[in-house]
């Protein structure tokens, strides 16, 4: 056999091997995507949750519909843990919605309402930091701010921090306030 035929045979075998590996990898990706799509379509039919942000979103939405808000918050927190930038604003937004809805069902005098609204405001602000043009998060932040305002003039319970002489020390040329 000539060297050219041997080289051609080796190149053909290498191409065949690479093609088979690429085909196996693509098949695995298609199988994984089909599994995620099936889970998203009906999360209640599965016992385990695929490790993908879309699957966690579907499980979170299902848990919210079943009124299991704590478990839904865990699912959206798992999405935040994935650190995939495309999913972060929606995960923050959904967590804020859960907290805001729960706070809006409470009486104004309930002491648990203010921390829930503050958590919702924090999540909406985080969503807006990730995606500034997220108008739904902006609107819900405004709703949360109307529910529990941060303006000292509107809030009678807001007290300005006073500096007492016992809580500060004086040094040369400037004064340092202690906490």
Overall radius of gyration: 27 Å
Taking pLDDT < 50 over at least 5 consecutive residues as the criterion, the unreliable ranges are: 160-171
What is the general shape? elongated
DSSP summary: helix tally: 6
Helix/strand-derived category reads mainly alpha
What percent of residues adopt helix (DSSP H or I)? 55-70%
Biggest sheet features: 2 strands, antiparallel
Count of distinct structural domains: 2
- Strand arrangement, major sheet: 1-2
The helix/strand order is HHHHHHEE
Q: Please, what is the average pLDDT?
A: 83
Please report which band the strand proportion falls in: under 5%, 5-15%, 15-25%, 25-35%, 35-45% or over 45%.
under 5%
Number of strands: 2
**How far apart are the first and last residues' alpha carbons, in Å?**
87 Å
Explain what this protein looks like in three dimensions.
By secondary structure, the chain is mainly alpha-helical. The chain has six helices and two strands, in the order H-H-H-H-H-H-E-E. It has helices at 3-41, 53-65, 69-81, 88-104, 113-130, 135-147, and strands at residues 168-171, 174-177. The chain has a two-stranded antiparallel sheet. A hairpin with a 2-residue loop joins strand 1 (168-171) and strand 2. Helix 1 (3-41) runs parallel beside helix 2 (53-65) and helix 4 (88-104) runs antiparallel to helix 5 (113-130). Residues 160-171 have low confidence and may be disordered.
